[in-house]
Amino acid sequence: EPEVTQTPSHQVTQMGQEVILRCVPISNHLYFYWYRQILGQKVEFLVSFYNNEISEKSEIFDDQFSVERPDGSNFTLKIRSTKLEDSAMYFCASNILPRDLGYTFGSGTRLTVV
Amino acid sequence: GNSVTQMEGPVTLSEEAFLTINCTYTATGYPSLFWYVQYPGEGLQLLLKATKADDKGSNKGFEATYRKETTSFHLEKGSVQVSDSAVYFCALSDKDRGSTLGRLYFGRGTQLTVWP
Which of B32, B44, B101 sits opposite A48 (nearest CB)? Predict the structure, then answer.
């Protein structure tokens, strides 16, 4: 069964450093998303991406965050200068059609900022 | 706004027990409702969904009915197995025009542990 692949599974970084979280969506999917879950809290939407541009972003997705689909296969989330409160599990997801069909999620990257 | 509230965990059951995980929602439009499951070390997987009021989603023995009058989408299973141990997330996707790509709103997740 096709999968969404995320790398790395766990990343530790120092506060103030830049991190790039990588995702390979399912190949025929057109809609891409990032979500995150801070430990013990809700899974929160960060951003949706379609046709090489951001479609929607949440209030969490400030100027420190950016997304890119650099080569038609990878979908990356960059955090420019990490803060302690960025520590969370980050999930990538993709979809053929939005809303009703449900997404395919990756297994997540656990980001720890120290 | 849109939000999902689900039962706090953890939930611990013996094998073959009946499971209910409560989920209620608020939505500005006409949401689709979902249950996702996360097994240890894996991603979120769609378990079942319902797209309109009174629809029943079902999969792998789990069921949930979209109740508009009580704004609820409770997850049930008649007889749980050890392999059902996982975290269960209730979610909604609002068809409101402001969310054209189906942004999901999640609950906090409920950890289920089933003992043999």
Answer: B101
